[in-house]
Amino acid sequence: MSQPLKSGEAADEIACRESAMIGRVLAGERELFHELIRPYEKSLYFSAFSLLRNAEEAEDVVQESLMKAYRALHSFRSESKFSTWLASIVLNEARGRLRHERVIPFTSIDESPDPDEDFTPAVIADWREVATETLERKEIREMIRRAIRELPNIYREVFVLRDVQELSIAESAKALGIAEGLVKVRLLRARLMMQKFLAPMLQTGRGGLFGFLRKGAGASWF
Q1: Among 159, 58, 65, which Cα is nearest to 108's?
Q2: In whole angstroms, how far apart are CA 164 and each of 3, 20, 43, 216?
Q3: Which residue numbers delimit the RNA polymerase sigma factor 70 region 4 type domain (predicted)?
């Protein structure tokens, strides 16, 4: 009986498979690009929607980002994870959309001034309901969605990349173009804001926000 792959081995296997597929796409098998990006479509949409808070805008951003990724596929370097590279493209596209439309900042959970909030960010998942899920799960999921939407942009994108998309600290930093230390600081603040917003739920003994997210396997849970 074959042994299950460890996380590092699984990641290496995925990277090798994606590298081979990228080579084939660049060699002319264009239809393979859809298979290459399929595992990341939900998380990319969730990232865009979390920042833009508009379904149509998020869909447009994802489609434009995937077109850019296809056109720039030759520039992808295997030192980065393909998923991180895609996330960076979506982040930049969403940021550009926000700058162009001059979106009015929304009220955050934490009203205390923070010089770090001058930073303009961006970040994707399928929000459709699963018919068989319990009412409690639906209620908790909606609470988490609302809490994420209330986070200031710079904290929201870090939270989504790290705790929903489950990128590592290093991968999140690379996608955002900031230092790893800054990712850790923003992630801590984001988690504290989420806990503050969700305090009533967390006090019911249901296990806590982050355990619930982990149980749901990140973006696929949404």
Answers
A1: 159
A2: 28, 27, 8, 9
A3: 141-193
Q: CATH class for domain 134-206?
A: mainly alpha
Using CA atoms, how far residue 42 sits from 14, 46, 137, 185, 188, in Å, is 18, 6, 19, 27, 25
Give me the numbers of helices (H) and strands (E) for the chain, helices first please: 11, 0
Mean pLDDT of the chain: 75
Closest CA to 106 of 34, 54, 63: 54
The whole-angstrom separation of Cα 182 and Cα 116 is: 10
pLDDT digit string, tens, across residues 60-113: 999 999 999 999 999 998 878 899 999 889 988 988 888 776 544 443 334 333
- 4-30 pLDDT per residue, tens: 445 566 778 888 999 999 999 999 999
The CATH number of the domain covering residues in 11-103: 1.10.1740.10
Interacting residues of 101 by C-beta distance below 8 A, sequence separation 6+: none
Tell me what the mean pLDDT of segment 51-60 comes to.
87
- Contact call for residues 141 and 149 (beta carbons, < 8 A): no
